[in-house]
């Protein structure tokens, strides 16, 4: 990574702000709004403090408990609620980065990425994204099989979809197709496949992870983003990227996923590359979990991504 460019040198990695986003409006299974609590109880703050960081827990974004599943256009479930949460989160993330703090965002379902990326994007001209997920979350209102906005955040950030969603905290598009890398995908809808092919988006599905090994996948990811001259990289971690054996507490589990060690290796190598400038952990649903296993795994991955060493 060309460590001389952008905010990698200016962003003080010793200061971290934790932002909780207790929203479940992007999908229809209850409980993912308790994800931030579950990750706090799993020791997120203490773990980062132990690594020497100055950690501020900014608390949770306020999320109104209103009526659910009001149809909008028959396509976007809970649109008003998602809009409100996204605006608030974008504002909070923007404030935190302005204070030169590294944002660690705790979801909530994956629709929260609309707000997090909108806020982060204000500070980077050529933002890169690593989407660590069993899904590609690039559906539009036209292609969505479910109406669930957690299957659409990347599309929204690329400027595709509802005009109010795409214009959260400024102009669309926030991302470039060529600055995205998918890792771990294995459940991709037909419309998503067509878009990924058309735009030639970089993707390491489980097939590539199996064939190449995670080590090579991360090496190529780092090289790819370097070649794009990104000035920051947001790491979006959907816990369903891992095999449900390791992270059963997610709303949309898909078998055949990334192992516990492969996921840690990915985090460790990305930490070594010193390219990550913000991160989020989403889709932790304690109601569906087994003894907080998924939140514990999320916090362990957070440790590896932010510098914890085995020896
Ligand atoms: N963030 C997630 N878990 N997304 C799951 C999306 C599932 C499916 N592709 C949909 O759009 O409904
Ligand atoms: Mn997913
Ligand atoms: Mn996702």
From TrEMBL:
<dbReference type="InterPro" id="IPR006035">
    <property type="entry name" value="Ureohydrolase"/>
</dbReference>
<keyword id="KW-0464">Manganese</keyword>
<protein>
    <recommendedName>
        <fullName>Arginase</fullName>
        <ecNumber>3.5.3.1</ecNumber>
    </recommendedName>
</protein>
<dbReference type="GO" id="GO:0006525">
    <property type="term" value="P:arginine metabolic process"/>
</dbReference>
<dbReference type="InterPro" id="IPR014033">
    <property type="entry name" value="Arginase"/>
</dbReference>
<comment type="pathway">
    <text>Nitrogen metabolism; urea cycle; L-ornithine and urea from L-arginine: step 1/1.</text>
</comment>
<dbReference type="Pfam" id="PF00491">
    <property type="entry name" value="Arginase"/>
</dbReference>
<keyword id="KW-0479">Metal-binding</keyword>
<comment type="similarity">
    <text>Belongs to the arginase family.</text>
</comment>
<dbReference type="InterPro" id="IPR023696">
    <property type="entry name" value="Ureohydrolase_dom_sf"/>
</dbReference>
<feature type="binding site">
    <location>
        <position position="240"/>
    </location>
    <ligand>
        <name>Mn(2+)</name>
    </ligand>
</feature>
<dbReference type="GO" id="GO:0000050">
    <property type="term" value="P:urea cycle"/>
</dbReference>
<feature type="binding site">
    <location>
        <position position="135"/>
    </location>
    <ligand>
        <name>Mn(2+)</name>
    </ligand>
</feature>
<feature type="binding site">
    <location>
        <position position="137"/>
    </location>
    <ligand>
        <name>Mn(2+)</name>
    </ligand>
</feature>
<dbReference type="GO" id="GO:0004053">
    <property type="term" value="F:arginase activity"/>
</dbReference>
<keyword id="KW-0056">Arginine metabolism</keyword>
<feature type="binding site">
    <location>
        <position position="133"/>
    </location>
    <ligand>
        <name>Mn(2+)</name>
    </ligand>
</feature>
<dbReference type="GO" id="GO:0030145">
    <property type="term" value="F:manganese ion binding"/>
</dbReference>
<dbReference type="InterPro" id="IPR020855">
    <property type="entry name" value="Ureohydrolase_Mn_BS"/>
</dbReference>
<feature type="binding site">
    <location>
        <position position="238"/>
    </location>
    <ligand>
        <name>Mn(2+)</name>
    </ligand>
</feature>
<dbReference type="GO" id="GO:0005737">
    <property type="term" value="C:cytoplasm"/>
</dbReference>
<feature type="binding site">
    <location>
        <position position="110"/>
    </location>
    <ligand>
        <name>Mn(2+)</name>
    </ligand>
</feature>
<keyword id="KW-0378">Hydrolase</keyword>
């Amino acid at each position: 990574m060309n460590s001389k460019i952008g905010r990698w040198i200016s962003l003080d990695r010793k200061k971290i702000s934790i932002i909780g986003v207790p929203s479940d409006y992007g999908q229809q299974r209850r409980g993912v709004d308790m994800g931030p609590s579950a990750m706090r109880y799993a020791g997120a703050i203490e773990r980062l403090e132990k690594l020497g960081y100055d950690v501020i827990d900014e608390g949770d974004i306020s999320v109104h408990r209103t009526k659910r599943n009001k149809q909008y256009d028959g396509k976007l479930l809970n649109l008003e609620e998602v809009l409100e949460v996204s605006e608030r989160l974008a504002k909070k993330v923007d404030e935190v980065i302005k204070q030169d703090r590294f944002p660690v965002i705790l979801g909530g379902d994956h629709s929260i990425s609309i707000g997090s990326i909108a806020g982060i994007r204000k500070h980077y001209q050529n933002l890169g994204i690593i989407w660590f997920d069993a899904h590609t979350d690039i559906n539009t209102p036209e292609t969505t099989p479910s109406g669930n906005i957690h299957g659409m955040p990347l599309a929204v950030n690329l400027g595709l979809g509802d005009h109010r969603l795409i214009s959260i905290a400024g102009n669309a598009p926030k991302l470039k197709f060529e600055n995205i890398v998918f890792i771990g995908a294995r459940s991709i809808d037909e419309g998503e496949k067509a878009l990924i092919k058309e735009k030639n988006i970089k993707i390491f599905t489980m097939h590539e992870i199996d064939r190449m090994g995670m080590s090579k996948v991360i090496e190529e990811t780092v090289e790819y983003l370097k070649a794009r001259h990104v000035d920051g990289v947001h790491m979006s971690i959907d816990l369903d990227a891992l095999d449900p054996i390791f992270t059963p507490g997610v709303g949309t589990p898909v078998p055949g996923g990334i192992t516990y060690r492969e996921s840690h290796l990915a985090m460790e190598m990305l930490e070594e590359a010193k390219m990550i400038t913000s991160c989020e952990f989403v889709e932790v649903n304690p109601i569906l979990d087994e003894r907080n296993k998924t939140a514990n795994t999320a916090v362990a991955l957070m440790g590896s991504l932010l510098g914890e060493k085995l020896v």
